[in-house]
Write a structure and sequence with these properties.
- It is a single chain.
- By secondary structure, the chain is mainly α.
- Helix content is about 60%, strand content about 5%.
- The protein is built from 17 helices and 4 strands.
- Strands 2-1-3-4 form a 4-stranded mixed sheet.
- The longest helix has 26 residues, at about 5-30.
- The chain is elongated.
- The two termini are about 40 Å apart.
């Protein structure tokens, strides 16, 4: 049960889970009113702690208790008007309790020397997350298959709910959802079919449920499918992130000569945060090396005619010698890191470059006011990471 999760990627999932918890609380108020306002007031603080990554497992445990109590009060079913948010979020909170604390991007990880902090989702943890979520889908599928309306394909598109579709199309979509939930557990048992099972279940949930008028249930399932998404499915290159012996060996050796170089402004606090982000998320340790702008390595690799035209923020020198600046440099780094960061780069690249560069320049213009200048040109790091920096 290998996986490509890094701390920063999982922090995105944690934020999505917290946002869905708040969304479920708001939906509860909209349908129940009265006591639901008190429930929302109780849910909001631990949801904020979960989003920030401050004692997030304690916050998740508190949310699990509170959310279970609201489910008992609503007395609903899986796709009921009120409880569409409940079951998926209960499953996601349970799975989150298995995840190691303090990933990069969480408040609990703030200030440590090693930005990654040795955080990773082990094979056992990954297997536990998959077991919780796959078995939940199996239970949902069995509960639905026991109902004749689901077996006949008449359970979802009824009473004018959802999009008006031909009868056979509506039945086909209903059977797709039912079959996908029933098949996720057996398909997840084998590494060769796990991605197919995930795509089948996630696709059915995010397509069929909104079409059938159950958009809230689809939103509640979002953190469930993000948790079982393997970033290795879209990793750009390099060894798998969770190969522990290889990971520890690579992090303690100087990266190969072909690694790309990130030049950064040594006097810029935001640039230092960016460098720490890349160090944390480049889990294999072979994608980038770092050097300050104007340093010896910079003068060695960047021709004199090109230096004056470069911005004083972040510049990436690719292995073929091409220099990337502004948003192009940022998008390239994200794509090279792989996983969800590569997906983010694909989304960002959809915007015109002029728009992306304008946003980049606007942030660069105020970065010195927003981020305190660092004490030294190189970030404070443990000894095993210093070899990735050049003067």
């Amino acid at each position: 049960m290998t996986n490509g999760w890094t701390g920063g990627q999982y922090s995105l999932v944690r934020i999505v889970l917290a946002a869905c918890m708040l969304g479920g609380g708001v939906a509860l108020v909209a349908t129940e009113g009265g006591w639901a306002w008190a429930a929302l007031a109780l849910i909001a603080p631990p949801a904020a702690a979960l989003a920030l990554g401050w004692h997030d497992r304690v916050a998740a445990a508190v949310l699990l208790v509170l959310w279970s109590a609201t489910l008992l009060l609503t007395r609903g079913v899986l796709l009921g008007e009120v409880t569409a948010w409940h079951w998926p979020l209960l499953v996601a909170l349970t799975a989150h309790l298995l995840v190691p604390p303090a990933p990069y991007g969480s408040l609990d990880a703030r200030g440590r020397l090693d930005p990654a902090g040795g955080w990773r989702i082990t094979a056992w943890t990954w297997g536990g997350i998959w077991a919780v979520i796959a078995l939940a889908h199996l239970a949902w599928g069995i509960a639905m298959a026991r109902q004749e309306t689901w077996r006949l394909g008449d359970a979802l598109f009824v009473n004018g709910r959802g999009v008006d579709l031909p009868e056979m199309v509506a039945r086909g979509l209903t059977w797709w959802l039912l079959g996908a939930w029933l098949l996720l557990a057996p398909l997840a048992a084998l590494p060769t079919t796990r991605a197919a099972g995930w795509a089948l279940a996630a696709g059915a949930s995010v397509i069929v449920l909104p079409l059938a008028g159950h958009g809230a249930a689809a939103l509640a399932l979002l953190p469930v499918y993000l948790m079982t998404f393997d970033p290795c499915w879209v990793v750009s290159r390099g060894p798998r992130h969770d190969a522990a012996p290889l990971l520890h060996r690579v992090l303690r050796e100087r990266p190969p000569a072909g690694a790309e170089v990130v030049f950064y402004d040594g006097n810029c606090g935001l640039c230092h945060h960016f460098v720490r982000f890349v160090l944390a998320e480049d889990a294999a340790g072979d994608r980038f090396v770092f050097a300050p702008l104007g340093g010896e390595r910079f003068r060695e690799l960047v021709p004199a005619p090109d230096r004056d035209a470069l911005p004083d923020s972040v510049v990436v020198r690719r292995a073929d010698g091409t220099l990337l600046v502004r948003s192009a440099a940022t998008m390239h780094v994200l794509a090279s890191l792989g996983g969800l960061w590569r997906v983010a780069a694909w989304v960002g690249a959809a915007a015109p470059r002029a728009v992306r560069d304008a946003a980049y320049d606007a942030i660069a213009a105020v970065r010195h006011r927003l981020f305190a200048p660092p004490v030294e040109a190189c970030p404070l790091l443990p000894a095993e990471l210093r070899g990735r920096f050049a003067a």
